[in-house]
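Our consortium's second objective concerns turning raw sequence data into structural hypotheses that experimental partners can test. To show how far this objective has progressed, the report includes one record in full. It was chosen at random from the queue rather than selected for favorable results. The single chain below, 88 residues long, was entered without modification.
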Amino acid sequence: MPISFKDSKLTFMHPAMTRTVITVIGACFTLVGGIFLLLPGPGLLFILIGLTLLSTQYPWAKRWLRLSQRQLTKSAAWLDNQIRRYRR
């Protein structure tokens, strides 16, 4: 049976099962991202993917995702300024 999204939920599963599957997958991505912060790998990418999945089910994850997006935006702006200053 193909997966279809309706109101951001999987339609072929019971809502409790959907929440459980999304929680497990999101937690796995977040944990792997945490491990990749210590080891070489795309740690921030995995953490953001995990938080994105978890934010569909939990308000606390949405707050952490927004906080991380704001911080990454500030970091990118700072890095842009540093690069411009270096090129002068």
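The partners drew two points from this record. The helical segments are 15-38, 43-55, 59-87. The CA atoms of residues 69 and 75 lie 10 Å apart. Both points have been shared with the crystallography group to help prioritize constructs.
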